[in-house]
Known about the structure:
This protein is of the alpha+beta class. The protein is 29% helix and 26% strand. The strands form six sheets. Strands 11, 14, 17, 18, 19, 20 and 21 form a seven-stranded mixed sheet that branches. Strands 1-8-6-3 form a four-stranded antiparallel sheet, with helices on one face. The chain has a four-stranded antiparallel sheet with strand order 5-4-2-7, with no helix packed on it. The termini are far apart.
Amino acid sequence: xxxxxxxxxxxxxxxxxxxxxxxxxxxxxxxxxxxxxxxxxxxxxxxxxxxxxxxxxxxxxxxxxxxxxxxxxxxxxxxxxxxxxxxxxxxxxxxxxxxxxxxxxxxxxxxxxxxxxxxxxxxxxxxxxxxxxxxxxxxxxxxxxxxxxxxxxxxxxxxxxxxxxxxxxxxxxxxxxxxxxxxxxxxxxxxxxxxxxxxxxxxxxxxxxxxxxxxxxxxxxxxxxxxxxxxxxxxxxxxxxxxxxxxxxxxxxxxxxxxxxxxxxxxxxxxxxxxxxxxxxxxxxxxxxxxxxxxxxxxxxxxxxxxxxxxxxxxxxxxxxxxxxxxxxxxxxxxxxxxxxxxxxxxxxxxxxxxxxxxxxxxxxxxxxxxxxxxxxxxxxxxxxxxxxxxxxxxxxxxxxxxxxx
Length: 406
């Protein structure tokens, strides 16, 4: 009897409930080897590539591009070359999706055995595909038929999609979206929300509605930190940003006040020994917060390199699911936009987020004398269910000591 296998919607991460097919990378009827790139799937966070779980012939591509399906749903069928169409049809008719609500499969078991939160940054697997351009056969043929130069689209590496080719052929950029069929005024541009932005919107509403936020504000004198930064940049010959210095300081403050380095999972409060800081990055598809792991063990140069790598891959859309998991605290910095301060929404299951404003020269009184100092305003948003006001205030006091050198 022929061997027939199901290709199903994977569960990447405990929060994943569904995924959207963005591209089939191999056509039905093709011979495939286990481990080759098979399907691009957009989850609530990123576009990930599902590899073929078995070797054989891709007999059927059941799910279509843009279909959104639940975890465990049948996407395609791989079988021996000798498998007949009747056997495949019978397999599909009798297929029953597995309830994967709490099952992450083999990868989840591995993650349970060795949580990524316990793996320092330097020892984490290199999951990036930066610099590698991937074009599926259907997209390559489409580009040829439309006269689109793939080299121009793939200069930055990453995945070249059908939409990018069609947009290029129509003389549009790959960030433009087709107009809605609804009747609107000619001077209105209608852009459908992407799956990622829909999910971001849903989660922000849930977070703001369900989490009892409270906010603490502090002003810090950055003169000492700026002097340290200038010396580091001179000695190392590299550009260490103020944000890099703040991430380093926040990690130290979280160690001094671990009551803020917590997450809420169900009814359990998780207290973390590792400091895994999520750094908010603005992209065309919305805000995304990849995580720098084990920051408490990193020096400032490793932090700088790690943040640059995460930011680049966020903008290149080459992040993988592991980059967005296991965060224990988030920093969102909008200072480069000239804002004095702002308040941020907590990124669940984390208990707090630090919103960083811009550097400003202000007049302050020090030892009875007025002087000009480089000042920074931060706002700490806390989940009152798991972080008391006094604990949040103690964290900001510890952060002041790290920044001002008290």
